[in-house]
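Quick question, first post here. What does this chain look like in 3D?
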Amino acid sequence: MPINYGATDENDNGVNSAKEITEEYISVPITRKWWVVSQKFLFGLGHVYNDLCAAMWFSYMMLFLQAVMEMQAVFAGTMLLLGQVIDALATPVVGVLADQFNTKKRWHLVGSVLVICSFPLLFVRCWGCWPEAELNYVSIWMPVYYSVLITMFQIGWAVVQISHLAMIPAISDSLQVRSELTSIRYMASVISSLTVYFITWVVLRSTKYSTSIGPTDDYKFRNVSLIISAIGIICTTLFHICFKLRCKNERKTVKMDSDSGEENLLKNTNWKFWYFLKMPLLYQTSLLYVFSRLYWALSLVYVPLFLEERLSVNPTEGSELVASVPLVLYISSLFFSFLLKSNIEKIGNQVAYLIGSFFSLISCIWIAVTIDPEANVTQIYLVATLIGAGSAITLVSSLCVTADLIGPHSHQGASIYSIVTFADKLVTGIAVVAIENYKCDDALICPQYYRGVLTYACGGSAVLGILSLGLTAIGKDKKNQT
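> Answer (accepted):
Ran it through. Tokens below.
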């Protein structure tokens, strides 16, 4: 009898109702409704510092290295690639160890400490790296300094991400609960990113005004990183003190029909992780996540650089534009993630992903057709709204598809999430290096380079996501037939 991997619907005989499973994962009686809400809220806090860091990393790290530290574009891209490679290599190791030792909150704490010790220093000018310093000294010392910090930061970031994701299937078998926790997690991510852009906008507006970003603006990035680090530390502390992770008790196994016997079969065959590795559907699902993350990451990296490119033509718009446009992007993302939270069960994960991909594709076409250097700023805000909508819908739905794939096998949740998230780190880093490598040294030769990046690179990610969705749908059909 073939083992049917993946979650089942709450109405099936094999899974408890949403209410029963909610009782299982909350550490206090179900009658205290306010405590149920607070526990979900506290779960969302567990990834806030990571989300704050990710928003700064993708949106402003390249801008900081190129405009403030005056690092060449290809070297700045290499720094981002290094971070993505370290993140990718650390991800599967963390996934396997977290599942083996089943200490997800401890791993989360270790990762948080690494992030706290390294991230704030990424946006501080390295000692001796002043514009008037000796060129040879700076060209050697600067990459070494930031490489060490990036390595430490990305290892910690990967540990926190995988351990926090693995808590979702460990909490409940219910697709409804998992989808809700995934949406809450993404909403917390959006709010965190909004916080970063709002703080950046306030800092840029309240400090010495400038029409562009330059070496004298290093203290602005330092102040932003210190403020968001303080917020992140508070959220992480609340998570570890107040959130009580009560995984499904092994004594409360899922009740199965006598004719199915899937749970007994899993016990008798001593189910191992390599069964998942033989599933084509696992890799098809990974592609959904990879291309949704690639679109999201490239948008975050290159929207500020596109805006800085635009400011060279329209300097009167002011440097705070690099904060206000991403702010609108994330307000849109927050709205659509909230809308998706209550409707994803009705429309289905795959249909939601398709809708989000079309939003993403339309935004790229809009940039290509109408967003020239003389275009009205209102159009840029409208495009940012579409980018936020597409990112929110595709990311949440792809994670829900992954949770569905894991099903009742939460003891391998961290490993599965590590596989699904592994490729996106490498793909994003390689894409950024390739994009920066082809950038012209003279901006006059390619004055709209980053506009092309948002059009073709992000648009290509959306198209590949749609194609991957087709493969995943075919793979699920084959699985259901077996």
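The CA atoms of residues 77 and 358 lie 29 Å apart.
Residues 1-36, 249-271 have pLDDT under 50 and may be disordered.
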